[in-house]
Design brief:
single chain, alpha/beta, seven-stranded mixed β-sheet, three-stranded antiparallel β-sheet, binds S-adenosylmethionine
Length: 280
């Protein structure tokens, strides 16, 4: 791959999905995309770039390229401190705030194979605060392949590596051969959809959310892409709604319109509530 081919491909991927392939990742890009060239019978990366721009199948191929370049690593009950703070400190607030509507909406943005969305639904069930409520956990990802796995809801030992054994017996049914399936009553609270977080128009169709989890997704984006995605979250959150990022992520230098919430065990972000009428 020449430097020019790298630049063209990298810019094309970036403008589609916000993922920035760093200069020093040229070799990784080459290795991950090479099977696509072979599958299409193309001889070089210039040809592949032309294919991505002009071929009738370009949209399908762009999905395959993004698929090859993205990291889908995830597992159940990832980042337990944050989940504990969410359960102990945020859920009581939401229960009180939404008591009259008895409705709760949580978005797992960049949900990969679904473990995060199901974990949230399991925590909601375990809390017993939302029985007979209208609850929806909405998992979205740019990759259709991971969403197919999420909908199947069948997992092996690696996905369960941080799941306490009592949760395994409570929330999963054994399938044999080391595999388990998420129980139907948990699945009933979760749905999935394909969504590119950089597609602001498509994101406008997402319902108003009480909480957005977007963990370990924006780490692959550069600053302008992060700003765009944060703008989307700001619009989709109800006033007072929470944004939960991964533990290595924060909103420093983003000038984002969120306030920092100090929970006992963790940090979260919140969309500010408008001041009471008389004070505006
Ligand atoms: C490392 S996984 C994170 C999974 C989960 N949130 C967690 O923390 O365990 C990152 C996911 O973000 C998705 N992703 C990357 N760019 C995206 C975009 N522009 N729109 C939506 N999803 C994206 C990838 O497909 C991948 O499944």
């Amino acid at each position: 791959m020449t430097a020019e081919e790298f630049r063209l491909l990298r810019d094309h991927v970036y403008s589609h999905c916000g993922i920035l392939v760093r200069e020093d990742m040229k070799f990784v890009m080459e290795r991950r995309l090479w099977p696509r060239l072979e599958a299409l019978g193309l001889r070089d990366f210039s040809g592949y770039h032309r294919y991505l721009r002009y071929d009738a199948q370009r949209r399908v191929e762009l999905e395959a390229a993004v698929e090859a370049l993205t990291t889908h690593e995830t597992y159940f009950f990832r980042e337990p401190n944050q989940l504990k703070a969410f359960t102990d400190e945020i859920l009581p607030v939401l229960q009180q705030r939404n008591a009259s509507s008895r409705r709760l909406r949580i978005w797992s943005a960049g949900c990969s194979t679904g473990e995060e969305a199901y974990t949230i639904a399991m925590l909601l069930q375990q809390s017993r605060r939302f029985e007979n409520w209208d609850v929806e956990v909405y998992g979205t990802d740019i990759s259709r392949r991971v969403l197919a796995t999420a909908r199947r809801a069948e997992y092996g030992p690696s996905a369960l590596r941080a799941t306490p054994p009592e949760h395994v017996s409570r929330f999963f049914v054994p399938l044999g051969g080391n595999k388990v399936k998420v129980r139907d009553d948990v699945r009933a609270w979760v749905s999935f959809g394909q969504l590119n977080l950089l597609d602001a128009e498509a994101c406008q169709l997402v319902a108003q959310m009480d909480v957005v989890f977007c963990r370990n997704v924006m780490i692959y984006f550069d600053l302008p892409a992060r700003r765009r995605v944060l703008q989307v979250f700001h619009e989709r959150l109800v006033p007072g709604g929470y944004l939960m990022l991964g533990h290595s992520e924060n909103l420093l230098n983003l000038g984002a319109d969120f306030e920092l919430v100090h929970l006992r065990g963790d940090l979260a972000y919140r969309k500010p509530e408008p001041p009471p009428r008389g004070l505006r």
